[in-house]
Write a structure and sequence with these properties.
Number of strands: 0
Oligomer: single chain
Low-confidence stretches: none
Helix content: over 70%
Largest sheet: none
Strand content: under 5%
Shape: globular
Order of helices and strands: HHHHHHHHH
């Protein structure tokens, strides 16, 4: 937000039309996921993270990036530790999210399968490993339950 302020100052510093204020007001959506628009924006953002994580998992699954396979596996693990359970919850509100999860169900399931305990021990500081792995397992369980429902 500080960078946004700096950019707006540079481009709209002496603007008297109020455009800077309008842009800053709109940017509040990003900062407040509890508002209706903020919630929708945050959900779209999470779908974007999920897409990135799934793309990295697909490279691992297909073996198309062997030189960075561990980094891609870590990216998939991090995304799968943070977003599936929330997206599952929000799929009851946003039907496109439900459709996305449904259409990606095989890849999401496969992505959970490429992550091992080694992914956490080799990529996170010791004090974060258990927490990150627990979050991953919680999301994996939520995913398994959603598929079964």
């Amino acid at each position: 937000m500080r960078q946004l302020d700096a950019i707006l100052d540079r481009h709209y510093g002496e603007d008297t039309s109020g455009i800077k204020d309008i842009i800053l007001e709109a940017a509040q959506v990003v900062r407040d996921p509890s508002s209706k628009l903020g919630h929708a924006f945050n959900t779209i953002e999470r779908v974007g993270y999920m897409r990135t994580g799934l793309r990295s998992a697909l490279h691992v699954i297909e073996g198309t990036a062997p030189d960075c396979q561990e980094g891609l596996r870590w990216l998939a693990a991090d995304v799968l530790s943070n977003h599936p359970a929330v997206l599952i919850e929000r799929s009851a509100i946003y039907m496109p999210v439900r459709a996305y999860l449904y259409h990606q169900r095989y890849l999401i399931t496969s992505a959970f399968g490429i992550v091992s305990p080694h992914t956490f021990t080799s990529n996170y500081p010791e004090e974060q490993q258990a927490t990150k792995e627990a979050a991953f397992k919680t999301n994996q369980q939520a995913w398994t339950e959603w598929l079964a429902s």
